[in-house]
Amino acid sequence: MTVPATTVRLLLADDHPVVRAGLRAVLETEADFEIVADVPTAEQAVRLAAECDVDVVLMDLQFGGRMLGSQATAEITARPGGPRVLVLTTYDTDADILAAIEAGATGYLLKDAPPQELAAAVRTAAAGRSALAPTVALRLMDRLRTPATALSRRETEVLQLVAEGHSNAAVSKRLFLSQATVKSHLVHIYAKLGVDSRTSAVAAATAQGLIRR
Amino acid sequence: MTVPATTVRLLLADDHPVVRAGLRAVLETEADFEIVADVPTAEQAVRLAAECDVDVVLMDLQFGGRMLGSQATAEITARPGGPRVLVLTTYDTDADILAAIEAGATGYLLKDAPPQELAAAVRTAAAGRSALAPTVALRLMDRLRTPATALSRRETEVLQLVAEGHSNAAVSKRLFLSQATVKSHLVHIYAKLGVDSRTSAVAAATAQGLIRR
DNA sequence: TGCGGCATCAACCAAAGGGTTGACCTCGGG
DNA sequence: CCCGAGGTCAACCCTTTGGTTGATGCCGCA
After folding, report:
1. Residue B152, CB, less than 7 Å from strand C?
2. Could you tell me the distance in Å between the CA of residue B136 and the C1' of nucleotide C15?
3. A90 at the B interface (CB within 8 A)?
4. Domain B8-144 CATH assignment equals 3.40.50.300
5. pLDDT over threshold 70, residue A213
6. pLDDT tens digits for B122-149?
7. Among its keywords, does the record have NADP (chains A, B) (predicted)?
């Protein structure tokens, strides 16, 4: 049991005022934490992470506005010597988790985590080690066990649009592809998910959390 | 501008520790609010609402566990002389809103609401008047303007199966119908939802909470 | 260096889904 | 008592989607 002598400097990024206040309340009680600032947008998170001296950024994935949390995460972690990013979100879909980790997040927590677990994860992240919520870790294990389930980036992108109700033609325009390519992707998707139609592919993928509802 | 002389006694019900802490932090600063307790389950909310002297219950809709927030809301408001219930949730789907209001909720707020709006809504609810977030109010207006949005029982049944990935043939067998009838239902569904394909119908219906995901 | 996975596209055919018209039945309310 | 809405079905036609084959280029890894 070693108590870290150094204080951990934190930046909170979440578009919900209530959640920001809650994180403040929960984390401020820890003697070795110092909350530098809390911001409501991903853009401000990127800016402050660069300007201020911050050790760990607690980052939401869903912001009401344009920029995604995963995008902000990528920009922050791209800078060498920058802060660690700890993703804190409500959902635990495969797509979100993968995106966050690929973006360079050091950890992935769910918002229903108890305060002690949260504080522990922050210290773990500050030390440079990865912090994953148990549920998240399980999902990743499953993922690795059955690599067939894993859709490629492009495939996920296509399926996401299909799930939103777009036709092949609409998807092809949206992604600057020919319809042939879209169909090709879909055939691969069907094979991976073990289905034979677009609607059942969407059903299977949402059930497995591969795409966002 | 009348400042209420009486203090408003509050009960917070949310399964996220962070959100509970956030609501405490935000609402405790109001001089005329007193937070009686915060609980992590719908069941405890029902029990405490009956046992303690509470004016307003701030109720989440999604609890990790079994009981739904709307169910708890119904039980609390069923008791005469009981507290008002103010629903506070992340989502603004038609189904959720309708369920909450039918369950007897006095108001419906989104979690991204600014603190001042939140406090104002609590006072409004305490006074017995209804408090709706702007977005929510808009949704209800839309709903009333186009009553066509309501699917019939049979149509919902068909669309539910379609959403699960079944083909027209599969649906017809499942419901002991001819394919012609299934198609007929689908055409009506498209018209009501303002779409022109099964996948977009599923997307629109899930967005509006007309079917289970 | 060459294999395999990913992404891209074309052309084609078969099948499923989408859209229309028209019809019959039942039930509940004006 | 009749009308309208919901539910059921048939026959038809056209569009979209599904499935195949085959081909190209790129990239990473063995």
Report:
1. no
2. 44
3. yes
4. no
5. no
6. 999 999 888 888 777 776 666 555 544 6
7. no
